[in-house]
Write a structure and sequence with these properties.
homodimer, mainly alpha, Farnesyl Diphosphate Synthase, two-stranded antiparallel sheet, 2 strands, 1% strand, transferase (chains A, B), isoprene biosynthesis (chains A, B), coiled coil (chains A, B), Farnesyl diphosphate synthase (chains A, B)
Chain lengths: 295, 295
């Protein structure tokens, strides 16, 4: 397949996910209207849906039925959206913008944003359990993996370390732990959920985890690079915020060239991890896209 | 059994739960220390553990092994603790005290409190899935019920309605919906989880839901009454906060006597719902205790 076909495939995955998320958050009239609007505002219409694409592609490679993988993709995107809402709150990163539009609390107020985040996290689990296509065993496995990946020794753990290290220099080891948890945990979870929606070979499971871990780290490193080099307009948020917040990043530790080289290295290793598998074209393309993205 | 034996039984349930929660939140040294401390601060050493007692007693009545019921009791208490942490935050009720000690954000700061709440909600699901005594089917059922009960059409829904109706008069219908969701949903969930930890008869399942719903509403009405009549010292929080926040309560809608009568009525109906069952003594006592509590 040519690169523009992979781009089309990524967009197709995003479209599928968007449609499913839209359906799962269509509710009738009720007294909770405002928080439902806030949930839809933050969940829908956004981003490349990289996590959903991971679920769907690993699902496809493991022979998963699309609806089964799609339910899990929605759950992962809900957890991701909840984490962004809470991350943007004034007591956290205090970000007024997200993807070029006002962040959830700027639009709906802090209390509604807090509850919208709580609601999305809960909804992720509800989505798994109310699935009509996943087996009981798959629901159990998926929800257990998702809980762990998003918990205090997963994504939340990453946010905690991020907060605690604010304003102080941390070393490469601590930074790698932070990135592995904050971004890596949910990406690894996405790859794993895709696999268990089908019938994965053990070596494929293992490869999926290496691939996702390497891609996750590369994603964070390019974030660090874009914060220095990116264009505000494309990013949809101000650049230079890391320096302003005195954050330790790959760029502050290794310099711009060092960071770029590290990102390249991670991506090479990610591609290496899936090289044995047939039909790995999309995964290779996604890895390269992470490296070369400008937003 | 005599009443003081039931009191002992409630305390024994609380002790069992406390010990299990303590074990489930004992972690080694790690970089996330602060949020783990915040979680333990808010989760441990507190309250009557009414929700856990519901799980354990309904579990006992349905022949559940204690360790199975206990895992579910812990999950429910974790969800309860998370809801209190987020409820106390400045953007919500802005409460400085909880059970007579500084609330989580007062002690650990807002961002840590936010993440501690997020972490507890996630940990509740992790607790279910990592259980060594629950079957896959039980885990699935329990987690699905818990997700629904704590979600936007359960507990969070109640908080949303609570926020939206602040400062404006609402009618009895809206107030009952609010209470049914904010407190009732998790109590019903607790009773249900106790049942499914064992092998419940269908009529018992149904009775448990009526019992928990009625007790939940009575609990809220006595909260309204205690906010007017209670002693600050016993409550561990200032009285009169409802009036100050211009909240509609059973007392503002029906007057003090009307509210007391409604609470009595709910408790009579709660007791009625379980009167056919043998060994209902503890449930009858708990219902009465809800009515006569002074904190």
């Amino acid at each position: 397949m040519r690169n523009d076909s992979y781009q089309t495939k990524l967009e197709e995955y995003a479209r599928l996910t968007e449609k499913a998320l839209e359906e799962k958050t269509t509710w009738g009239a009720c007294r909770q209207r405002q928080v439902l609007d806030a949930i839809r505002y933050s969940l829908l219409g956004g981003g490349k849906r990289l996590r959903a694409a991971m679920v769907l592609e690993f699902g496809r490679l493991c022979g998963a039925p699309v609806p089964a993988a799609l339910d899990l993709a929605c759950a992962v995107e809900m957890v991701h959206a909840y984490s962004l809402i809470h991350d943007d709150l004034p007591c956290m990163d205090n970000d007024d913008y997200r993807r070029g539009k006002p962040s959830c609390h700027k639009k709906f107020g802090e209390s509604t944003a807090l509850l919208a985040g709580d609601g999305l996290l809960t909804l992720a689990f509800e989505t798994i359990f109310s699935s009509r296509v996943l087996t009981s065993q798959q629901k159990n496995d998926a929800a257990g993996i998702l809980a762990q990946a998003s918990g205090i020794f997963g994504m939340i753990g990453g946010q905690v370390i991020d907060l605690e290290s604010e304003g102080q220099k941390i070393d490469m080891d601590a930074l790698n732990t932070l990135y592995a948890l904050k971004t890596g945990a949910l990406l690894r979870c996405a790859a794993l959920l895709g696999c268990i929606a089908g019938a994965p070979e053990p070596e494929f499971l293992e490869a999926s985890q290496i691939y996702a871990r390497k891609c996750g780290l590369a994603f964070q490193i390019t974030d660090d690079i874009l914060d220095v080099m990116g264009e505000e307009e494309k990013l949809g948020k101000p650049i230079g915020s890391d320096r302003e917040n005195k954050k330790t990043t790959y760029v502050t530790l290794l310099g711009l060239e060092g960071a770029k080289q590290s990102a390249r290295q991670q991506i090479e290793q990610a591609k290496e991890s899936v090289k044995e598998f047939e039909e790995n074209g999309f995964l290779l393309w996604v890895a390269d896209m992470i490296l070369t993205r400008d937003h």
